[in-house]
Structure formats: C-alpha cells, structure tokens
C-alpha cells in the first residue's frame, strides 16, 4: 500500500515549508479546498490560465473538453512560481488537486519519492499513449527507479537570438560563433550604445545561461556529474567558469546583468535595447513581429578547445507535464478522459499553432505563426546540444544556485570565487 505523505517527508525533500504556519495562512484559499468532493469534478492545478504562454489555448481546450463531456466538470486552480509550495501545502491537508500541470524542477523532483504524486507509467501503457510521447521526453521524465513522474507535454528549444539589424548597425558582419567573435561584437555594439547580451542574471534565466557556458568544456556525461554533485573542480568545469568570466569582464553581458530578471531581459531584447539574448521558445514566441523579422537564431559561441563541435543550444522536454495525485487516482476514469483529450493530435496542434509551444509529443504540426520558434525547431547539425541541469540539481540547491548566479554575473568576481559560490550552493543539499 502506498504510504501517506508526511510533514517530515516534505521537509526532508527540501521543500522548506513551515507547514504549521502555512496551513492557517492559506486556509481561506481555494488551493486548500482543491479536493472537490464531487466525484464528477476533476481539479487541475496549473500555471496556465493567466499570462503564461499557452493560457488562452489551454482555457479554450477546457471549454471543448467540457462540451464533449457534459457530465464531467473541470475546476481550475492557478498559481505561478509558487505552485509547488501551494500544492505541497494542500497535499499535507489531503486536499490536493487531482492533476497538476508543472515542470520537472526544484521541489517537483521529490514528489514521486514522497508520494505527493504517483508513478504514471502504468497509466501511460494501459491507456495506449506511450507511442504519442517522444522517446527523449519519456526518458527525461523517468526517474532512476523507472517511474514516470508525469505525462510529458510541453518541451522547449533554447537557442540564442541575434538581432541582425542591430548587429549590422554596429558593423558586425557575421553572427558570432566563437568567444573572440562575441567579444569583438560586444565592443562594436557598446560603441553604438547597444547592450550586447541581455540576461536575467538574478533569476533562472541567468542560471541556465551560466550552466550552458560552463558546459562549453564538458561532455554531457561530465555535465551530469557536475550538476548532480556540485563538484565544479574538474578541468572542464574550471575552464568553463574561466570562459564565462572572460566573456563577462570583456563586457559581453548587459550592464548590471546581476540584477536583471527574465522580464527585464525580454524587454531589453524586444525593445531593441539589446542585440542578443538566450531565449527559450516561449520567449521567442513573444518577440514582436518587427523585431522577429530581423532576428536569427543559433547557438552560444564556442571557445577554443571546447568539448563541442558547434555553438550550443539547450533542448529540454520537461517544461510541463501532467502529474496525477493520490486524490486523482480516486477519479482515475475521469482523469483518463482528460489526459486522452489533451494528448489528442488536434489539441496538441492547437498549442503549436496558436501559442507557439514546443511539445514533448509526436506531431507534424509546425509553428508557422511563430517563425522564430519554427526556426529553432529546424536547428540541426549546425548546433550542439548541452544539458538543461534542472533534473540533476538537488532541490535544496536550486535557489542557492540562483543566488550564486547573481554573484557570478557581478563584474570582477574571480573564477575561483564563482566556483566557490556554485559549490557552496550544494552544501545545504
């Protein structure tokens, strides 16, 4: 019999919840009333429904699902970045949602282990949906014990966007493909009053770009070891950190990058205040048409002696999945209808066409209305792929790593101090 989630389980998993204090504070919220007693109501806890990319398509899909299943209701609970903590708090009260739509990152890495959600592999097979999932996505969502944490859904391509018009204005004739090219381009851009590379050095976007640059000198197996253990002392990791600090101190990144966020990064690029950004597909989908016309996508420039043949990008399949909770198991027939509907080719195609989302599922649909997303999908042999570290970083190290990232983007911080900051983030893990 599956054991019940305990307060100790959540705290041991690194959630940091002060559950006794949190429950009274949230007692008036819908999140703690999530477990609807109506057996014909599915409760879905999601980050879609407001301004998140794909929200209009998702809400429209729910309307169609309700019309096709008139006796079945869907109740939507919406949270942003705090979804993980809110869900865990509701689970402690045994009032969690039936289905959770969230990425594999930070707190969610521990959910299957502490019985906050269930292994969905048996359902994937019983419902005949395995062939709908891309093999790479299935692998990414499967843990070391062979359990499928959630039904894969959204994926992402994470290339580098280059504003060709701004580069031309600064006299940069070619898209930079090496570190030396990038430094030279940054100098020319700055001379014209244009920020070179904008990045959210104070949040997750900076963390991801820093990890990508460090991997310049790491194979994927070496990168898995580094981000699983926090050991940045290998030759490749040290060379990657030194490459990062060389670029940073040469003025490659926007001024005061250590204080920027993903929002300020996107604003700088979309208003043409900056010429380059590392942009996941959801950000590419929001680039205004007049900027997108002058944007080319490619990889992060290489350094001499790097471990990769081509400039690098990140491709990941863990952006959003459908997790099933213990409460959801009690309504599993209804959950099956919902998942089958969301996996239907016509539903999947609408997310691609209407929202520019990359999917972790098999599909022939292309984001024709989102040219930069489509261009990123076409990137092939001209780029090399590096790891998204999210599934390897221990949950307790996630937020400390973001703090270390801000330190790393602070100009003048030595490579040794960057390494120390990154390694110290793991000490609490």
UniProtKB/TrEMBL annotation:
Q: Entry's PROSITE patterns?
A: PROKAR_LIPOPROTEIN, TAT
Q: Which UniProt keywords apply?
A: Signal
**Where does the secretion signal sit in this chain?**
1-27
User: InterPro entries, per this entry?
Assistant: Bact_solute-bd_prot1 (IPR050490), SBP (IPR006059), TAT_signal (IPR006311)
Domain of life where this protein originates: Bacteria
* Keyword Signal among record annotations: yes
Concerning Pfam families, the annotation shows: SBP_bac_1
The keyword Cell division belongs to this UniProt entry's keyword annotation: no
Q: What is this protein called?
A: ABC transporter substrate-binding protein
Species name for this entry?
Streptomyces spinosisporus
């Amino acid at each position: 019999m599956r054991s019940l989630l305990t307060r100790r389980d959540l705290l041991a998993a690194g959630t940091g919840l002060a559950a006794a204090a949190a429950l009274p504070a949230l007692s008036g919220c819908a999140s703690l009333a999530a477990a609807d007693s109506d057996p014909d109501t599915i409760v879905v806890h999601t980050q879609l429904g407001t301004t998140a990319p794909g929200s209009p398509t998702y809400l429209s899909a729910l309307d169609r699902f309700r019309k096709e299943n008139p006796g079945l209701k869907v109740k939507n609970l919406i949270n942003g970045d705090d979804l993980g903590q809110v869900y865990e708090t509701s689970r402690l009260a045994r009032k969690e949602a039936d289905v959770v739509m969230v990425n594999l990152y930070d707190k969610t890495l521990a959910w299957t282990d502490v019985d906050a959600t269930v292994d969905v592999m048996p359902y994937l097979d019983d419902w005949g949906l395995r062939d709908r999932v891309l093999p790479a996505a299935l692998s990414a969502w499967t843990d070391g014990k062979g359990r499928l944490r959630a039904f894969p859904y959204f994926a992402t391509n994470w290339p580098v966007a280059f504003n060709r018009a701004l580069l031309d204005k600064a006299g940069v004739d070619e898209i930079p493909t090496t570190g030396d090219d990038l430094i030279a381009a940054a100098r020319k851009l700055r001379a014209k009053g244009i920020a070179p590379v904008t990045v959210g050095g104070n949040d997750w976007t900076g963390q991801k770009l820093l990890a990508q640059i460090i991997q310049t000198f790491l194979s994927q197996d070496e990168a898995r070891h580094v981000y699983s253990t926090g050991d940045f002392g290998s030759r490749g990791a040290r060379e990657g950190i030194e490459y990062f600090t060389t670029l940073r101190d040469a003025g490659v990144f926007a001024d005061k990058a250590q204080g920027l966020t993903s929002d300020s990064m996107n604003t700088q690029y979309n208003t043409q205040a900056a010429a380059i950004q590392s942009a996941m597909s959801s950000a590419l989908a929001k680039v205004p048409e007049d900027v997108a016309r002058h944007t080319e996508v490619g990889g992060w420039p290489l350094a001499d002696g790097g471990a990769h043949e081509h400039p690098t990008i990140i491709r990941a399949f863990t952006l959003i999945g459908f997790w099933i909770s213990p409460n959801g198991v009690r309504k599993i027939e209804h959950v099956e209808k919902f998942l089958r509907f969301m996996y239907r080719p016509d539903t999947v195609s609408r997310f691609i066409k209407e929202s520019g989302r990359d999917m972790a599922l098999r599909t022939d649909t292309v984001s024709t209305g989102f040219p930069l997303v489509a261009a990123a999908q076409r990137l092939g042999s001209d780029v090399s792929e590096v790891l998204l570290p999210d599934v390897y970083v221990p949950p307790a190290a996630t937020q400390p790593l973001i703090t270390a990232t801000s330190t790393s983007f602070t100009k003048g911080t030595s490579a040794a101090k960057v390494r120390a900051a990154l390694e110290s983030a793991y000490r609490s893990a």
